[in-house]
Amino acid sequence: MVEHTDLGTIYERLQRLVSNARLPEVEPGTHYGLPAFKVGGKAFATVKNNETIVLALPIDRKEQLIEMTPEIYFQTDHYVGWPALPLRIDTIEDEELELRLIEAWRYRAPKKLLARFG
Question: Which InterPro entries match (predicted)?
């Protein structure tokens, strides 16, 4: 289990993993007033609070992850029907989180950028 205490620590962890993944054209920013990472002006990872981040993923993928690992991935009424997947930041290891960040980046990246990234 990974322990996190504040939004800054979580944001720094996400920033490190985005950098490790070598995702191009990532912009720090905000999404609905919350710290976020964006590509092509669209948020793909948002720090909701000191326990939860939200990733942009297709609904079918979101449901698959919730079913596979409900201790990490979950859904609230607010996210039903939306391509947004909340996850418990203190239950996910860096390796898996990096893979999910790549997935979310790919989901939000403009097609031309995706083609260059591979």
Answer: YjbR/MT2646/Rv2570-like (IPR058532)
- Please say if the pLDDT value at position 5 is more than 90: no
The reply to whether the predicted model has a pTM over 0.85 is yes
Cα 78 to its chain centre, rounded Å, is 17
Give the C-alpha distances (Å, rounded to integers) separating 113 from 59, 61, 101.
22, 22, 16
CA angle 98, 58, 87 (to 5 degrees): 50
In a domain, 79, yes or no: yes
Is it the case that residue 87 has pLDDT exceeding 90?
yes
48: CATH: 3.90.1150.30
Tell me the residue range of the domain where 109 lies.
Answer: 7-117
Is 2 inside a domain boundary? no
